[in-house]
Structure formats: C-alpha cells, structure tokens
C-alpha cells in the first residue's frame, strides 16, 4: 500500500525559512577558532606557537628588507619565490600582501611587487631571485616540511623541557589546541608521546602534568645512567662503523677549536652522538626506555644556555673526546670506564646548573601551561 503526502506550501516555506535561520544562528555561534583561517591571519608567530608557511616567508623577506640585505627596486614575483621556498603560490601571495600592507613593497606598472621601503625607488630591477639576493644562508632550511604532528610534538617538548626546571605545571589540552591552532587530538597524541619519554605524566581522568625537575630526581636519574649506559655502550658500539666514530670524534675536536664560539646546536649533536646514537644498538628495549627517561636532566644545560646566552662546555667536550679516543684507539672497557666517569661529573654540573636556574627569573609561560607549585 502506498501513501502520498501533500504539504501545504505555506508550511513548507515556513519550515525552510526556519531551517535557514537556525543554520545562520549556528554559524554565527561557531567558536572563533573555526572562523579564523590561520593562513589568512596577520598575527606574528611567537615562541608559543609554530609559524605557518606564509608567516615564515613573510618574516624571511621582511628581515632581509629591513636588514638591508636586499637590493632596492628588486622585483618580487610569486612564481620564482614559490620555487625558491619550495612551496605553492598561495602562501607566497599571502606573504607579499602582508608586506605590501606594511609598506615594505609596492605595486608598480608591471607584474609582481617592488622592494621599496623608503618609497624612493623608480626603476624596477628584474633579475633571477636567488638566496644571495634575499640575504638567505645557502644551507638554511626555509620551510619546515615535517608533518603537523611532528612539529606540534617538538614544540610541546621544547616548552615542557624549558619550564619543568622552574616548577610543577598543568598542561591544558584545549588551551594548547587553541593556541597552536590545531585539533585537540593532535595535541593529545603529542602529549602521549611525551609521556612515553617521561617528560609528562597523566593519571586516568586527570590532567597532564610536567615537572618539577628536582635535585633528588637528577641524582636518581644519573645513578641509573651510570649503571646502564656503560653496558649499553658496550653492546651498541659493536654495530657502529669506525667511520661514524671517527666523524663523531672530529665533531668534538671542531667544537673544542671553536671555544666559546661553539654553537648550541653543535653541543646538542655531540650529546646525541654519545648518549643516543652510540647506544642505539642495545638489544634490551626496556633498558633503552629507562635510559631515555633518565636522560631528561641533560636538558638543563640547554635551558641554562637559553637563559644566559652562554655556557661552559669545555669539561664535557674533553670527557667526550676521551671516550671516543678510547673507542677508536683503546679498548671498549676503557671507554665504558670513561663514560661512567663522565656521567658522574655531569651529575655534579647539572646540580650546579639547577642552583643557578633557581635564582633566575622564570620566563613567561604559554597560556596552556598553568603553574601549580
């Protein structure tokens, strides 16, 4: 049996009108973060959130123009810039529009924009765009192409490491998602990875917590490292090619020659060489996990360097050098003994650095970190 329903035209009209009105109301009441497209915002990136591609391009060009590294009158065109930055034209177009609004570039009778911050340039200079013309280092990475999850993970890890030495913090997932302009799931996945590394903790139905890194925790971590890392080195070094060990020793020597001018990134690489790469071949996965969690105090040196813009690494460099020279020209056992001695001395240095940090002013925390104690 079939049924037919004939609707009154007035009722249908009122229903459609009501639906439209309801949808309009829903759209008006959507959270502001859904209305705001990060690619259309002119907000400057801060230390509290990663820069988007258009912001990176805008800031790179802006720094080059204001720093006098570009030639006045140079013509900027979307296509060549997109090729130079390895991206599509969309973020380049957005970056150029922002620079135009700021008055650093202007339109002219031709294609593209003219670099003219002083407003005095008349003759367009059309030449192939190169890194040198824009004042960009030859090997500098212009755009971060890592997946979003990796970038958010690194950002949160750096924030946690930076602040855990100052106290105990609660991490608000929703606030982090809003500040970093990502979904809450992306933040949660990053925090779960940080928990696996021992940087944060969370009980069921409770908040994410980070810190504090106390002197007692530092002592306990180094005690475990002194027990485990020499054996891990003994197991892992057999799988290391001699050429890799020679390259690691060479990096140490270069850092020593650089003296106070050594870059923090180079120090971080040396720590990675010895305490991560050389023991990566350990077969006991539980041992490897414990070692990773106990290496958190290594970050104290990085935080102190950021606070003081300097660090004293001469002793560490000499200790690393002795370990690698033993691996290459001595015995593995002597290298393990040197590593144990290095960890003992590193423990004392870390405790001293914690004391220094305790009297330094605490930096401003991002909104998603709430100080508990």
TrEMBL record:
Keyword hit for Transcription regulation: yes
Q: Which GO terms describe its molecular function?
A: DNA binding; DNA-binding transcription factor activity
Superkingdom of the organism of origin: Bacteria
Would I find Signal among this entry's keywords? Answer: no
PROSITE patterns named in the record = HTH_GNTR
Q: Which UniProt keywords apply?
A: DNA-binding, Transcription, Transcription regulation
HTH gntR-type domain spans which residues?
A: 51-118, 146-217
Supply the InterPro entries for this chain: GntR_C, TF_FadR/GntR_C, Tscrpt_reg_HTH_GntR, WH-like_DNA-bd_sf, WH_DNA-bd_sf
The record, for SUPFAM superfamilies, names: GntR ligand-binding domain-like, Winged helix' DNA-binding domain
Q: What is this protein called?
A: GntR-family regulatory protein
Q: Which organism is it from?
A: Pseudomonas putida (strain DOT-T1E)
